[in-house]
Amino acid sequence: MIAVVGASAAGLTAAQTLRREGYHGPLTVIGDEDRMPYDRPPLSKQILSGAWGPEKVTISSTVDAEWLLGVRATGLDLSARRLALSTGNTLEYDGLVIATGVRPRRLPFGQDLAGVHVLHTLDDTLAFKADLATARSVVIVGAGFIGSEVAAVASGKGVAVTIVDPLPAPMVTQFGPWVGGLVGKLHADHGVRLRMGVGVTGLVGDDRVNAVELSDGSTLPADVVLVAIGSVPNTEWLAGSGLSLSNGVDCDSLCQAGPGVVAAGDVASWTHPAHGVRMRVEHRMNATEQAVAAARTLLGKGEPYAPVPYFWTDQYDVKIQAYGTFPAGARPSVAAGDVGSGRFAALFAQECLITGVLGWNLPRDTRQLRTRIGLRAPDARPRESADSSLTTNSASP
User: Fold this and answer.
1) Cβ(355)–Cβ(373) below 8 Å
2) How many domains in the chain?
3) Does the predicted model carry a pTM greater than 0.85?
């Protein structure tokens, strides 16, 4: 019997791959939500904006398996190959796929106040959307993917939006200061107030939040607050199991975490054979690709998992697409289009090698340029006004 813990995109893909690759034995998928697997990227965009109804995010789940929904795995006995479940039952397995994903990181204060939200599940999104419908002001704590996408949607609804982040510009962690400056300008041009370089020290309110206190001593009024400060891998249930859990579930290059155990998706870190470093990638395409690789490993057909990561974000009328990796200090060079037109693609290089390609409303050129990843870099300097772009930070107006 093979058990898949996590009724997620990765969990579903792993189950489908097992069947497609010829496994005909018992297969059980365990998920803590009371829903069949669904896509999360549209939550902060199409679902929040109202462009899609909730039913549209459900992933086609045609697979011959037993589904245990609303059930959590609470422990793992690696030597006995046995799972403990929140129902009090146990489940013995021959092979195990761990696809439990991540959960939102929360502030150490004020998270229980009404009007304070995180955004990860469909229920999270619907609750936040309902609050946003009557709000005049929203403060978004965190300027990464989710925070920036939600800011774009909320701004389009006519709500006064403020983004707060201790970093100098949005999405600096993901893409560095040059792209961060461009994203910051995009938001400022749409009326979003940016309070960068400051942290949040408190949430004010009795039963419901009404203000956010910042580390510079100022206070922001807020009818609604979204906390989008990153995520934590769901591995607590594996404590004491004997698996390595230094950064999610640690795997080898075949996505194998232990005897008869593989991991995939946001929760899995693995040694990338091309880069020689341990990676954990929290993006939708990786969930699918790694689940296929992990399922094949479980069936004895494994090969080293060496993807070129692909991810994207939609904000206002801009689609940012990225291939590869964007390590701190990587140098950008515009290779197609130009920044001033709002349509360009840039190569990112570190130590003379191209590590990533980023496209800004230029999908075809971006796809073509991904073949340059791993090659020697050209002169790594943005084509137009690099210095001014790099210093365009998102200071509040």
Assistant:
1) yes
2) 3
3) yes
